[in-house]
Amino acid sequence: MWIFLQELSEKQIFKRLVIRKLHLDFEISAHEACREVFPNVEIQAFNLGQCWWRKINSEQQLRTSYTNELRKWLKLFFGLKFVPPHDIENAFVELVSIFPNIDIGCLFSDYILHTYVENDCLFPPAIWAQEPLGNPR
Fold it and tell me: Which branch of life, at top level (predicted)?
């Protein structure tokens, strides 16, 4: 698709298409395909909450142990997307430090750590975390 758009741009307006910033879903293949054609593109991912709820619902132990205390703790993770990318690791450590049930909580926190927080993860904080804008929509 990206190559098609690039060729269409060159054919129709005789200019090479340059994309500086692009919003994509959390699909690693879409990110890779885009970077192949536009190596300098800044990708911002969306639907983070949807990905995390899918994970929660996919783990039977999380679903069956969904106490009020665990529910409140899991909801705190959804605030991470409003933390500046350089502060995500510290915020994550804070959340882990208040585990209500380490055996159950680690099912979710390990997934978040390995997929969204640590160095060389699939979706680093730079593509999904940012401080809220000062002006509301």
Answer: Eukaryota
